[in-house]
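Issue: copy button drops trailing tokens. Both records pasted manually instead:
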Amino acid sequence: MMKRVFLIAVLACMAMGAAYAQVNEDERTAYNRAIETGTVEAWQSFLADYPSGHYVEQARKLRDAAIVNRYCNEKVTLESLTSYIDTVRAFEPRVKLFYSNLVNNPTHSYRIEHLDVGFNGCTGRVNETVVMADGSKRNNVFYFNSQGLLTQSVIQGSKGVKTMVDYSYSYDNLHGYSLKQSKSKAKTVNYAPMFDASDRRVTIKGDNGSRQDYTFNENGQLTKLVITQDKGDKRTLLYKDGYIIREEVGGRAFRYHYDMDSATGKKFLIAIKELNGNDVVHERTFDYDIDTHGRYTRVAVALDGKPQMTITRSYSD
């Protein structure tokens, strides 16, 4: 009787061992297939099938490497990068860093009449018309590459003179894109980036004496930007959750106010209040028309309740 029980136990163990060996062989085959394919989707599928398998740690590392290869490269588009950052909860930190270095380039906005006009999210050609309160008109044109970086601007000044500036960028696989040069008929400025130990771009220096200095919090979010002009004038911008909340320039301070657009899930600037201590001395307000991509097509600007300008834009992606 004892021999029979022992034999049954041995056979059962052999059966279990065979099943275990079969599971390992299936996992090994799937793992090798994922290596051959090498895509993000292949590794995500493998991890879904074997969430606690023998190769899970290696598979996670290779999946993350595939994600970095997909999004951290010279040909990546701003659209695909933004989609990844906006939709993935546990994103690969290297992609977030690459994205941050990209969109914090200074050419994502320009200033007109002390107003920052943002460009983050634009690609292709942007035609812009600015109509001042006195009826005078300015026509501007901007060109962006697929990474959302400004490559050329043609801006008409208050006296009708148009200034064309061309922009070029440096690139490396570790840090991504950074402004390299701005060139117009009047001058050429060469820029050099500086990075911290975490590969965040913390400074952009121009050979004309200008510079931009960035400060980040422990989560890698931009909290402060100090812009120094070639003549030494400084402008300090304080950020929260990616939005400017305060500006300090020339001994004056400004507080920024936003409203959430329910259709796009984005915040839009609705007011800038100039402060004297805690008192508001001037207020500039903004009224928008927004397209389906979350870009404004018209913004009416008023200063202390009086119309100041209206900016309209059309986009050619």
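Record 2 (pasted manually too):
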Amino acid sequence: MNSISTAERVHVGDLEMYAEVRGSGPALLLVPGAGGDGDQYGEVADLLATDRTVITYDRRSNSRTSRPDAWAATTIDQQADDAVGLLVELGLAPAAVFGNSTGALIALSAALRHPTWVHRALVHEPTLMSVLADPEGALASVQPVIAGGMEQGGLPGGAEAFLRFAAGVGYDRLPDDAVSRILGNSEVLFQAEFGSFASWAPDPADVTGSPVDITVMTGEETAPFFAEAARWIAARRGTVVVTAPGGHMGFLEDPVAFAAVVAALLP
């Protein structure tokens, strides 16, 4: 395994962002989904850094990245601007960007908004609720899980239940300190991100016309609504959906196999 080359705090707009940089070569940014903590990608980042520069980071107001004063809301597009701003400040743009779940939406938005700085986007298990035939039904599958967790442990309990639901058997591979930070991000997750991220709707014409190479991925054990969202994006790109090992967070379940699939999709 590679060690972290640098752990940096980078000023991006109104943020002091925490980032870790591994390896050398073409740049690849890994965008975290719910919980916002970059360490969920630790194992797969080490594997991918054998022949490229891999950047992981904590998203706005999550974990080791700062929370601006009086900040109470965010959007997918703001998160995309943060991600690209980080790449620029690190001197690693243009880059490829990978995102999982809500991180996939951020990666897609980054590609649509900043084609100068993002030359390739890998969009894995996108939570693109706005394009589903039955978005309420999709959300209904997870709401009881969150509610049950909150009944037992408040917002952190809801975050833990949600993370266990999303990660499946991969949950036990998450570092303990990352889990602790993610549970500490529960207020951000439920009060600032959850509703805003679920309502994000890209312009179909922008998805179709983007000059960026956009690859859509789902897990072998994906849920129907993730597959539906992935097909919606792929149909507008005229491409097929690529299947990756595992479930929603397959990079935790089998990082070696997952890294091999991602590496094969990159130049």
